[in-house]
Structure formats: structure tokens, C-alpha cells
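Hi Q.,

Before the meeting this afternoon, I wanted you to have the coenzyme A prediction in hand. No need to reply - just skim if you have a minute. The sequence and ligand are here:
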Amino acid sequence: MDLQFVTYEVANGIATITVNRPDKLNALNDAVMAEIDAAFRRAKSDADCGVVILTGAGEKAFVAGADIGELAEQTVRGGKEKSLRGQRVLHNIEHLGKPVIAMINGFAFGGGLELALACHLRTLAAETRIGLPEVGLSIIPGYGGTQRLPRIVGRGRAFEMILSGKPIDAETALSFGLVNRVAPAAELREATEKLAGAMLGNGPLALAMAMESILRGTETSLEEGLRIECDLFGIISSTEDMREGLNAFLEKRKPEYKGK
Ligand code: COA
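Predicted structure with the ligand bound:
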């Protein structure tokens, strides 16, 4: 698929996926969503990609939300289908099997923040405000915002953010645990790459299974979650990478993982 609204670049193990529609502050229409999905599929099968950074083109916005012009033409049935399609794209990001960091370089409103919530980690430019303003347009978040936000920040904070529609600043986002790092815009890339670098040298299968254990385990009881964890621990014990990781430690050398 040729990408028109999204760019994909890979360097030093990090794939950067950039939503590239800066004249509309990278707003998400159906075509942009399909291209984001295609770019993440590419990252999944790209052997040179260990971690993904998702960001927005231009200096102003990460993603300023779903495309309001497109939403205005929505029918009842179309609304549900659009929400379902978007939720599937975000589900694929969450279950990519590689860590994904949303580098929120500017406005992240509505669908833009929901996109970032589907990523595993988030970094935020210190000057930026983020929020879910949908109710101000008399719609509700439809790309998982009512579900992922309370799971990350707790219900009380999510109720306030979603029902007031008011954006929060970077300091508040950090104190809510909504973002992992805050840095001035000029230093955001460096801070985000540092975070990515801390994950890159680790066993790729271990990263995938740890993420799967967290994602599946936190949606169920502790007992069931512990069962998921020990099943995955059993599977990782059968891999060449596990042997390589343990032997490298004992032999005092750097491990060379093959993803097998
Ligand atoms: N959907 C479609 N177009 C959007 C958009 C969106 N969510 N957000 C911004 N744009 C477009 C604007 O219409 C404008 O296009 P134009 O130049 O053709 O008129 C362009 O992007 C620049 O936006 P503008 O509003 O002029 O920039 P600003 O700096 O004055 O304001 C925002 C920035 C983010 C505060 C403002 O654009 C905004 O409130 N956007 C909507 C945010 C929102 O409610 N998102 C949730 C949607 S569910």
C-alpha cells in the first residue's frame, strides 16, 4: 500500500511512524486510519524494527482528533462502523508484539489522545495540552477513550477529563501517570529515543510475551492473570533466545538474540 498521509522510517532498531497531514493538524479521517494500520502491519513484520515511535508531522500537533468534517456527515450505522473500524486499528497497535511509544509532540485531542492511549508508553512535549473534548461536540470518544483512559488514570480522573472535555497540561498528565516522560519540545525526540533504547537490547520474544501478559492479565482476575503469566513463562523457557540470554550472562558477554 502506498502511503500518502503517513510516513515510515526505520533507523537503529526504531521505526518512526508519522501521521503526516499537518495542514489539518494530522486529523484522522478514514484514509489516514487505514494508512496507520498499514504502517503498523509493516512494523510488525519488519525485522529491523524493535520499537515503534508514533508521532505527528509539523510543530503544532500530534493528532488534533478525528476529522470533524467527516464526522459531520455520519449516519447512525456509519457511526458505529467507524468506531468499530478505528477500535480494530488501535487494537492492532496495542497487540503489535513490539513496544510502541506515542511521542506527543503537540495537540492530542479526541481520537489523537485515544491513539496515544493504545500505545504502551507515552512521552509529551512540556508545552502541550491533551484531552478528550468530544462531549463539547455532543459526541463521545469512540476509539476506546472511555475504556482505556480510566484503566490508565482511574475512573475519577477519567470522569473529570471526559465529562468536562477540558484539556490537561503536561504536569497534570505526568502526575496522573498518563504519560511516562515530559520534555521540552526540542528535547522530546532525544528523551523518547532514550526510552526506546532502554528496551531495544532486550530479548524481543521476552518483550512480546511480557506485554501480552500485562495486556491479558490486567483484564482478568489475579488468579487467571497469574495462570497467563506462568503459561507464557513456560513458552519463553522453550526459546533459543532464553538460553542465549542466560548463557551470555554466565559467559560475561553481550547476548545476540534471534527472535527464536
Ligand atoms: N478535524 C478536522 N480538521 C481539523 C481538526 C479536526 N479534528 N482539527 C484541526 N483541524 C483543521 C482546522 O479546521 C484548520 O483547517 P483550515 O485551515 O482548512 O481551516 C486546520 O486544521 C488548522 O486548525 P486551526 O483550528 O486553525 O488551528 P488552531 O491552532 O487555531 O487551533 C486546535 C488548534 C487543536 C485548538 C483546534 O484546531 C481544535 O480545537 N481542533 C479540534 C479539536 C477537537 O475537538 N478534537 C476532537 C474531535 S472529535
